[in-house]
Specification:
Blueprint (H helix, E strand, L loop, with lengths): L18 H16 L7 H18 L13 H9 L5 H27 L6 H10 L2 H8 L4 H20 L5 H13 L10 H13 L3 H20 L10 H4 L10 E4 L2 E4 L4 H4 L2 H4 L7 H11 L5 H15 L13 H18 L3 H40 L6 E4 L3 H6 L5 E4 L13 E4 L1 H8 L3 H11 L3 E6 L5 E5 L1
Parallel strand pairs: 3-4, 3-5
Antiparallel strand pairs: 1-2, 5-7, 6-7
Length: 475
């Protein structure tokens, strides 16, 4: 890295304020309670909650929790949290606490990597803590924030191990890094520099190999215990088997979840960390000034970010949440650009106005980012409330079945995707959203079953529900 006052300050400084952290946790929790938002939406978060309940039951003497497709770290932590707070809020609580830790260690990493920077505290507050997608991940019941936190903490200890080889930071970095992988498998790509440092270390200190193995064993023990012989089932996922360089240039895909048409091809979608306002609305400007600053913390970290994003581009699917775990590394690499930008526009009045405008803009973008998730949850709650007014009987549905189980409706829920026999008994309820699933599911079992029932005139309207959901009775 070229000589820079970011690396070698005339006087070492530490910039971090605990005030945002101390305010963030209670404020986020209060806002969510006032809005009656528990962070659950869609199939995945309700499946995390289901397994978390099973784990909590098992830990108190109940039956084996059974198999779980995703890594167990997130629902396991939520299971322990559920002994203290209501189970339905446990996933969200883990995400909020993780966000506070993540912000703290991002600031510590900036202090460690750029000790001469003058804008570290403001940068981490404005572009990390106030990032709309960061705040969204902090309040939803998904593993994104926990995984991101483990990665940021591992990155911090990796840098600390480079600066202080005699410390125990490398062991901690390995432990946290493996836990990150046990939270979201794909995060392993982001630990390439940690692997490089570990190999360099054991060449000089061979005995350190056993410390690394010990840390790894500790981190993977929960997965070994709960997943047993099924730990590598994720390698059979069609997104991996269908991975292709050709997907970089496509924007339409057919996969196990249906047919999808996106606005941009994958090669542009992966630029979201610097182009999407939900991540960093000044991203492309920061890239320009970072290149101009000629400051690069490490080629290994840059390579890691690029490899991860190009890996995502090869998956036949797009989801902006998948990019979230790499976002802190992108911001870490872009800090020199922000430092140079603020040097160029150093007028105090300009900086104050700039600060206020950013906060207002970030607040507006955050509301826009969170609203669809809130609306989705409200939709699930309203439908569950309507079904709770009906007597117990069989209910055939798709996509929303996890939410309906969470909200404990009286009907016996049968997911039509898993139907072995497509014959549905007369008098049963059938819940479907033809508008939402028309393009996506027509050629898959749910769409085929719906279209067959419709063509045979077996669907009798029973109730119209929010956002295109239709409740039918089978004739």
């Amino acid at each position: 890295m070229p000589n820079s006052n970011l690396e070698k300050p005339s006087k070492p400084t530490r910039q971090f304020s605990w005030i945002p952290v101390l305010l963030f946790v209670p404020f986020s929790w209060l806002i969510c309670r006032l809005a009656d938002f528990n962070g659950l939406y869609g199939q995945d978060s309700h499946e995390y909650l289901r397994y978390s309940k099973e784990l909590a039951n098992y830990l108190t003497g109940g039956p084996d929790p059974g198999l779980f497709f995703w890594p167990v770290t997130y629902p396991l932590i939520a299971a322990f949290v559920s002994f203290v707070i209501p189970t339905i809020l446990s996933l969200q609580f883990v995400s909020i606490i993780s966000a506070a830790i993540c912000y703290t260690y991002f600031g510590k990493t900036l202090n460690l990597v750029y000790p001469g920077g003058t804008q570290r505290q403001r940068y981490s507050l404005l572009f990390f803590l106030c990032s709309p997608f960061f705040l969204r991940a902090a309040v939803i019941g998904m593993s994104d924030m926990l995984c991101c936190t483990l990665i940021v903490c591992s990155v911090y200890h990796t840098f600390n191990a480079e600066k202080k080889p005699e410390s125990n930071s490398l062991v901690i970095a390995i432990l946290l890094g493996i836990l990150a992988i046990q939270t979201r498998y794909v995060s392993g790509i982001l630990l390439l520099p940690l692997l490089v440092l570990f190999i360099r270390t054991i060449r000089k200190r061979p005995l350190f190999f056993f410390f690394g193995i010990a840390a790894t064993v500790i981190a993977i023990t929960p997965s070994i215990f709960f997943k047993q012989n099924h730990a590598f089932e994720f390698l059979d996922h069609p997104w991996l088997s269908d991975w292709s360089v050709l997907n970089w240039f496509r924007k339409d895909f057919t996969n196990i979840e249906g047919d999808f048409l996106y606005t941009f091809p994958n090669i542009l979608y992966i630029l979201a960390p610097i182009l999407h306002p939900g991540y960093c609305f000044l991203g492309i400007i920061l890239v320009y000034f970072t290149v101009k600053s000629k400051v690069l913390i490490s080629r290994w970290w840059l390579a890691t970010v690029i490899i991860y994003l190009f890996f995502l581009a090869g998956i036949p699917f797009q989801n902006l949440r998948f990019i979230f775990v790499v976002f802190p590394l992108v911001l870490l690499l872009l800090y020199p650009g922000y430092e140079l930008l603020t040097e160029k526009y150093s007028n105090r009045t300009f900086k104050l106005v700039f600060l206020i405008l950013i906060l207002i803009l970030q607040a507006g973008l955050t509301l826009r980012a969170v609203k669809p998730f809130y609306d989705y949850q409200e939709e699930e709650k309203v439908i569950a409330s309507e079904l709770n007014k009906l007597p117990a009987q069989k209910l055939y549905t798709f996509s929303i079945d996890g939410a309906l189980r969470t909200y404990e409706i009286p009907q016996e829920i049968i997911n039509i995707w898993s139907l072995q026999n497509s014959l549905i008994p007369s008098g049963s309820l059938f819940l479907y959203n033809p508008t939402r699933f028309e393009a996506q599911q027509n050629n898959l079992p749910p769409g085929k079953i719906y279209n067959r029932l419709k063509s045979q005139s077996k669907l009798s309207y029973f109730k119209v529900l929010p956002n295109g959901w239709q409740l039918y009775r089978i004739r």
